[in-house]
Structure formats: structure tokens, C-alpha cells
Amino acid sequence: QGVTFSKTEVNSTAELPGATLQVFRGETADAANLVEEWVSTDTAKVIELIPGIYTMVETTAPQGYLVAESITFRVNLDGSVEIKDGENFIPAANVTVRMEDAFAPQGVTFSKTEVNGTAELPGATLQVFKGETADAANLIEEWVSTDTAKVIELTPGIYTMVETTAPQGYLVAESITFRVNLDGSVEIKDGENFIPAANATVR
User: DSSP state, 190?
Assistant: First the structure.
């Protein structure tokens, strides 16, 4: 029976290239029972499988993603497919085994200095929000700057850093919108463009 294997990122339907995937006969990844190994592309993979129980394994994820948990599934005599969920098997839509990869968190450094200074400036209240606006529902973290830079683990995407109160004697800085990329690099929004930030640092 033709079974479709789909590799996507979480909450996406587009195929995710670059993952090394394997299908084994049975419920374990026993090398003796390897049926097929491939690297995902922008189209789903179809493999002809006889009825029985199989396991799909991701051995390496694309850059910027976490390796997904293995999926055990059953191919039935009528060609339908069911995914193992705990002790039960749940019907799979369109004879498709779909594995999703979550983003891997990337360490981003937040540096608060005075203009033309390199030393960290303590006493500023700072916030990081998911997205391009300071929407309270999307607050990721809030902290008061110290004499060391702050590192936060963020998944790839667009964020905004806001200073809510400045240290005494300083003006509140403008907000900074930035993008975290799959490779861990950071870019700062400047007008309509994003400019690379040195050392994955938002300053």
C-alpha cells in the first residue's frame, strides 16, 4: 500500500526539506528492520508498505529545528493507516504519516549601554515581545539591566525589545524590532530592511 510521509514544521502544511528520515518494520528502530531512509524535500515521500506495524524516525533535523519524536503506525489490510497514540491507534487522514519539527531555541544576547559606550548600563527596565508590537499578551520576558548582558533563548521569528523605564538621568530608548533566524543569527529591523547584528546581540 502506498503510504505518504509528510515532514513539516509545527503548525505548517508546507513540506520541510533537509530532515533525515527512516522507516522501520516494527515498533523499534532496529537496523535489521530498516525499510527506507531518505532526506525530506519540498514534496512528501510515498513508500509502498505491506500491512503491519512500522516506526518513522527522524535521525537529524534541518538547521534550526529540534528532532521530532518517533511515530509508530499501522498499515491495515484495506490500505488505511493508523497512528499509535499511547496504547491506541488513531486513523490517519489521507493515508499520511505526518511528523512535525519544532523550532530549536537560539541564544540571543541583549546589551544595554549608553550611547557610544560599551559597558553595560544597569537600571533599565526592558521587555521582549513576540512580534512587531509591544502587545502584553505576547510578552516573552521582562528584566532590569545589570552590569552584564542578558541572554534569552528564543525560537526563530520576529520580536521587539522595549525599554519601559530608563536609568536615572537617561532618556528611554526607541524600541528595537529584530529577527532570529534558523541558524541562530540575529538581524535588526532598520526601516523596511533587516540588518545583521554582530554576535547575535540586540544592543
Answer: E
Q: How far is CA 87 from CA 61, 78, 116, 144, in A?
A: 27, 22, 61, 48
Which of 18, 9, 36, 7 shows the shortest CA–CA distance to 97?
7
Q: Which residue type, as a one-letter code, is found at position 188? A: I
Q: Return d(Cα 125, Cα 119) in angstroms, integer.
A: 17
Whole-prediction pTM? 0.82
Amino acid identity of residue 6, one-letter, is: S
98-131 pLDDT per residue, tens: 999 999 999 999 999 988 888 899 999 999 999 9
Residue 3: all three cell numbers together = 503510504
Residues ≥6 apart with Cβ < 8 Å to 4 = 44, 45, 46, 94, 95, 96, 97
